Amino acid sequence: MTTPADKRIPVDFAEPSFAELFTPKLITVLREGYGLTALKSDLVAGLTVAIVALPLSMAIAIACGVTPDRGLYTAIVGGFLISMLGGSRFQIGGPAGAFIVLVATTVQQHGIDGLLLATLISGIFLVIAGFLRLGTYIKFIPYPVTVGFTAGIGIIIFTSQLKDFLGLTLSGPEPGPILDKLEVLAAAVPTASPAALLLAVVTVAIIVLAKRWRPGWPGMLMAVVIASLLALAIGLPVETIGSRFGGIPRTLPMPSLPSLSLEKIQDVLPSALAFALLGAIESLLSAVVADGMTGRRHRSNCELAAQGTANIFASLFGGVPATGTIARTATNVRAGARGPIAGMAHSVFLLLFMLLAAPLAAYIPLPALAGVLVVVAWNMIEKHAFAALIRSSRGDALVLLATFLLTVFRDLTEGIVVGFALGAMLFINRMAKTITVEYQTPLIDPDVADSSRERVPYDPSLVTDPDIVVYRISGAFFFGAASTVGAVLDRIADQRKALILDFSAVPVLDSTAANTIAGAARKAHQAGVELFITGTSPAIRRTLFTHGVRPPQTRFGRTPESAVRHLQARSADSTKDAGETRESDLRS
Length: 588
Prior knowledge:
The protein is mostly helical.
């Protein structure tokens, strides 16, 4: 990526020290100056997130095949450590819907002790990955893969909640594979409970309506409370947390190591690796989302080390795997959080709930929690992104569908690995098509006479106008380079009025890169910066259009020079109009 000479961004090539890379963002925020106003904002944000996390943590734990208290243990212990030690200012940690399938399978195969041991080992793997600085490479996962496996997880969560959503009575244990599960659930439809279906539908309706008409209200908690009061007042015959699990305890358990043996470690090692891989992807994806919302930058390796530490301690307290959660992190940002203390406060508020109001949890109907997870599953399926990738190109559609179908019908890890391999092959194929062979091409470009028509007259306005900045992107713009270009575009100065991106030297652009440009376009629009993209080929322009980079938010032109002249001419017209207005005012 190149920029005009006097517009280049200074880069410090000095290797950062270990302490600089792994200093938690909490320390950074405190060093910047942390006052009472920031503390109040963080406490309000923490309470807001806790209200969202309370029903969600219990619902995810139940869907994983464990008791609801283990979800709270994870949010309290794991969430606190992720915020305190992490490399993101806004990350909220806890149990995540993405882990439901893996955790449920591990519990079925190895029991609770096996789950705790796998969580402990995955934490160790994540700490090692952070210290080896492997977090940087997680960014190389192509965008279609993340959309595909997230949508696949959403489908799996949705089907896993049908039993409680409909109040079905099964003759035997619920199968794990989705096709077998659907067959058993379809056979049990005659046993559906109208009361359970009523509560589940009421829960979903309240969440959806609250999000649409009162987005600042805690829709999930409101839905669970109203459903619980409705079931209690009418005496609906539905299962509750109390009837299935006997309620939740009022205190945290004492920490203890899970049972250790070489044979047991070997048995749970595949699950631990899957937990670590998914935890790394999910947490860093969540941190990237927070970066896009706030304009800040997280430190991926510090974040991985914090995630690992959180999983180690979560397992000691009997919790399930913890990771960064996109929905709760986004809620934290929207609630006005200033730093990691908001995430720590969210865990403290959840602990206070356990200490003071745990007996009330026994009255929560399980169909209501199923309704909460159905909404979560629906939101996990990025429908617009999925449709955009299907339309984008056959290659991206192939990667997306392969990842999605393997995740749903085979295995999550297999879906990620195959999707990444297909993405790499697709990139190699695209790069091969950009190769050109010229006859008798000299090794060194010859000098060109000043009178040659090949030379473009020098335009000083490209480097002298303080309100316009021009970036020229050179080379293949694909998922491996997207994070680097995105980091540079994030540094656009607030005082700029216009940004011009020149794509004339970009031979190929994939969906990950197009998504990066879409994020930069949204950020520029929010900041009032006008964005021009010049020099795009028809194929690149179609890819950008598919991902939402289109007029009027983004304008397209042939060359940077023409875009600059257009902006300057319009600025001159505006100045002239303003002058004529002032002169007219003086005459009047």
